[in-house]
Design goal:
The structure holds two protein chains of two kinds.
Chain A: H1 2-6, H2 8-51, H3 69-74, H4 78-109, H5 116-124, H6 131-153, H7 168-193, H8 197-205, H9 210-221, H10 223-238, H11 242-246, H12 259-269, H13 273-304
Helix pairs in contact in A: 4-7, 4-10, 4-12, 6-7, 7-10, 10-13, 12-13
Chain B: H1 7-35, H2 38-41, H3 56-64, H4 67-99, H5 102-113, H6 123-132, H7 139-162, H8 168-175, H9 180-191, H10 193-209, H11 212-217, H12 226-230, H13 233-236, H14 242-261, H15 263-273
Helix pairs in contact in B: 1-14, 3-14, 4-5, 4-7, 4-10, 5-7, 7-10, 8-9, 10-15
The chains are: A mainly alpha, B mainly alpha.
Keywords (chain B): Cell membrane, Membrane, Transmembrane, Transmembrane helix, Transport
GO biological process, one term (chain B): transmembrane transport
Main location (chain B): membrane
Amino acid sequence: MSITISSKPTSIVHKKKRVNARNIQYFLLLLPPLVFFIVAMIIPLIMGIYNSFTDWDGISLEKNWIGFTNYIEIFKDEMFIESFKFTGLFMIFNTIIQNVAAFFFAVMLDSSIKAKNFYRTIIFAPVLLSPILVGQIWTKMYGTILPSINDLFALSINFNLFSSPNTVLTGLLVANNWQWIGYWMLIYLAGLQAVPKDIYEACTVDGGNWWQKFIHITIPMLGPSITICTIGIATGSLKVYELIVASTGGGPGDSSKSTIMHIYDTAFMSQQSSYASAMSVVFLLVLLIFAFIQLKVLRKREVEL
Amino acid sequence: MSKKYTKGTFLIQSIVSVIVIFYLLPFLVVFLYAFKSPQEIIGSSPFSLPEKLELVNFTQAFEALNFFQSFGNTFFITASAVLLLILLSGMAAYSIVRGGNKFFNGTYMFFIAGIMIPYQVIFVPMFVLGSNLGFINNLFGVIFLYVGTSLPFAIFVMAGFMKTIPKEIEEAAFIDGCSIMRTFWIIVLPMLKPVAAALTIILSLQIWNDYLLPQLFLSDNSMKTLTVMQSTLFSAFETNFNVGFAGIILSSLPILILFLFMQKHFVKGITMGSGK
């Protein structure tokens, strides 16, 4: 260090050479991760986009360029539109329920109640399970276990939420929220713990009650956490697949088929690989546009607050 | 907020207790049913205690899951992928942050764009490419794909941490004639421990519980993972579904034990992973 300071002119030349030699070494370190990333994600992405303009079935050698035919087909495909509607509804309800519940759970667990750690552990525990297990647990809950409570107490509550197209969304929302609220709650809890305590004290001195503190301090200070959770929940819900595979299987009928599930079936059951790729491209575009808008809107809100 | 235990606090305590009881119900059912005999399913209340601890369900689930094999596969895939991910994301983050010129910044943006693309959206061409590369029924192929698809997120977290590490120690090593590779191995990598611990947990959780990739690529019985084996357990044991519940306990037990021992790291991993 001392050399570079004392002899400026020569050291700059030296430094430049050294930097170039260093950059090659840095690049060599960067190369292996780049290979993994490009092979696993970028090449499939490009292949998917290319295939979406062909009529390839995924197996045969025949592959013809058909332009936008697949894309035009998508907008006539009722199953795609239905699955997209279902996925959209699933996402909207999830985003609202999970955000609000996680937020309030976090606020409640940040108060001075006892046994906080115990509560937190229990609410977080479902996060550890695979969505496959969660789907199986709730299928049995709705189908066998909760109905037997009816028998015991001679009640007639309709617990069998997966058996009707009208209630299947509710059933899946309960299962999905049971699993994930604890995850987002942790992020809100971390956000709450980062709020400086003296702001609350200042508010108390100025005669503010708990409600004013909540509205004017807690919510604005959690702005960044709200952004993270909203985007995380929304994108997580859009790619729902495993939970549904293990519970309703897309049924009854096709009433709970998610977009990813429809893409899977199209590619591997009905052997329309190129068409499935086109659907993936459309779905990816929707996902990106959506994430972009959310980021813009939520970041803007953060600044305003 | 306030330190005293007031009426308000008691109200909150009651609300949270009710919520937690709702949360516990499914767990309770899983545990009770896993120990009940098939005869006890019918007739008795779902919340009654099992008459005696029935371990037959577990031995049956153990066999049906092909437990040692599928556990071994899941463990091998998860451990290898996570180890590689830590190493590779550390390498990338180090060169991106320290390289610091336009090329490295551009590469960083290239990686980060990958966070926006969930692998569930590109799995169709991924399967096509994978089958050409011989990834079908190949544990290493699945590991490769997990590493490649999770790298953007891992690099994002690593680079964020890397920026907080002071340069001085490395500079001292350079002056002593240490190459960049050596500096990375000997000096930088050990300093990444906290972020590596957090990443290990969050990535293990994701890969351990994943279903779509192994389901697509590993169809050979000796290659199947726990989630794939578990997914058919309830349909295989339709009448004595207690076996399915025992299977749920068996296949989630390892991650639950890990959680109990490393709870603090889990919390840290998730808040770090959320990208703040």
